[in-house]
Amino acid sequence: LGLGLLCWLPVCRFKVDLRNRDGFIVVVAFWFLLSLLGALPFMLSDNPHLSLVDAVFETASGLTTTGASILSGLDAITNPNPVPKAMLYYRAQLNFLGGMGIVVLAVALLPMLGIGGMQLYKAETPGPMKDEKLTPRITETAKNLWYIYVGLNVICTLSFWIAGMDFFDAICHSFATIALGGFSTHDASIGYFNSPAIELTAGFFSIAAAVNFALYFLAWRSRSIKAIFRDAEFQFCMWVFSGIIVVACGYLYLYDSNKFPLWEAIYHGFFQTASIITDNGLVTIGYPADWPLFVPLLLLMGSFFGGCVGSTCGGIKAIRFLLLYKQSVREARLLIRPTAQIAVKLGHQPVPDRVMQAVWGFYYLYIFSYCFFSLTLVALGVDIVTAFGSVAGCMNNMGVGLGETAGNFAPLSDASTWVLSLSMIVGRLEVFPLLLIFLRDFWK
User: Fold this and answer.
1) Among candidates 234, 213, 225, 63, which has minimal Cα distance to 144?
2) DSSP SS3 for 348
3) Contact 20/132 with Cβ under 8 angstroms?
4) 354 Cβ neighbours under 8 A, 6+ residues apart
5) 349: phi then psi, degrees, rounded to nearest 5
6) Rounded to whole angstroms, how far apart are CA atoms 287 and 390?
7) Residues 415-427: tens digit of each pLDDT
8) 132, 164, 277, 281, 440 from 159: Cα distances, Å
9) Is residue 425 a contact partner of residue 32, using CB atoms and an 8 Å limit?
10) pTM exceeding the 0.90 threshold for the entire prediction
């Protein structure tokens, strides 16, 4: 607040419209500055007392809703001097505020700047979604999204409480679940409770949080959920989720029915798949170390999918995969009929070629960034499995790694931790805004 006032007071008398260039700088500065400022409590606290690099990593992980953590000994089971509840709540609050920031930026602000993915909906959805904003005033849009977000958190908190959590755990885990953040109050995460009801609840709300919040707004305003179910991205997203959940549950049961009886394979598989694919990052008993390697690898690859644009999830997002799939089918058909005029459509509306070019450009930059960060970690001495798993966990804002970081990110060196902190912000900003500020033309 103090630093904000110092910035605001000298210029509060001037009224200047926000330009596109200003908007990009604000969006980038938002994540970097808050990651630094939010690190102060971790550095000033006696328990935990973190160095700058670890404090920034923990804060960036919370605000970007990644959920990767270097902290351990969160509860009395693993530590006679556990982390105080005030700090556990602060971590959960980072998830909560980061999730709301993502929703407002993605749905309310980014369409005005022409970045992100929400502009794709203008080509598909009738009615108010054709406009640049959901409501005429940006403040009204943000307020309505806030109501929806807080409402989902309240419902999720009550659901966890009814399922068997105490009220403190219910609040903190609802913040982590609706924000798809993944910070838990226990070292064993959701596995601490060993409860099918809690895992099923967490899985359901993870999927609910991966739905475009603009669709909830339209459903609320029209008093009908048809707006959600007839959306092309939502339908595609649910088909992909269902397929991966069935494969994961089936493999667990067929691999070792003694370790994973049918019911346990179903509820463990459903929760863990929903949590990892939506980039939530809460984990159940033994994941990933004690699970058959096929499932953690499948889910790690699924984390690139994420969920719907305009939700709190990370990853590449469903609508981009849907458009890439349709473009691939179009190219195959053009091989058969080279002179045919075949449009890529979302619903019944053709998608402009400019949008398809942007999707291909984003996909290239995202995969290139993933390879770059992975190679950087390997150059810093991290083994290949840990490097590829850690970067996937951080850049997709999923928070669960492989190898040495399967349970915690503390084993990594300071240099590797800085790299992963940057990868979280790159993943959350979806590459383009960060890249733009390094282009010479941007500053002319």
Assistant:
1) 213
2) coil
3) no
4) none
5) -105, 130
6) 15
7) 999 999 999 999 9
8) 35, 9, 22, 19, 51
9) yes
10) no
- The token pair at 377 is 């970690």
One-letter amino acid identity for 260? F
Lowest-pLDDT range, 29-38, 188-197, 238-247? 29-38
Amino acid at 219: A
| Contact between residue 402 and residue 296 where contact means Cβ atoms under 8 Å apart | yes
Q: What is the DSSP letter of 130?
A: G
Query: d(Cα 132, Cα 232) in Å, to the nearest integer?
Result: 19
Q: What are phi and psi of 413, to 5 degrees?
A: -70, 170
Radius of gyration of the chain from its Cα atoms, rounded to whole angstroms: 21
In tens, the pLDDT along 274-333 reads 999 999 999 999 898 889 999 999 999 999 999 998 888 889 999 999 999 999 999 999
Partners of 346 in the beta sheet? 349
Is the Cα dihedral 11, 13, 14, 20 positive or negative? positive
Please tell me the distance from the alpha carbon of residue 41 to that of residue 34, in angstroms, as a whole number: 12
Q: Which residue has the tokens 């998830």?
A: 95
**CA atoms within 13 A of residue 167's CA, in its CB half-sphere:** 1
User: How confident is the model at residue 125, as a pLDDT?
Assistant: 31
Angle between helices 196-209 and 138-163 (to 10 degrees): 170
DSSP 235-297: HHHHHHHHHHHHHHHHHHHHH-TTTS-HHHHHHHHHHHHHHHHTT-----TTTTTTS-THHHH
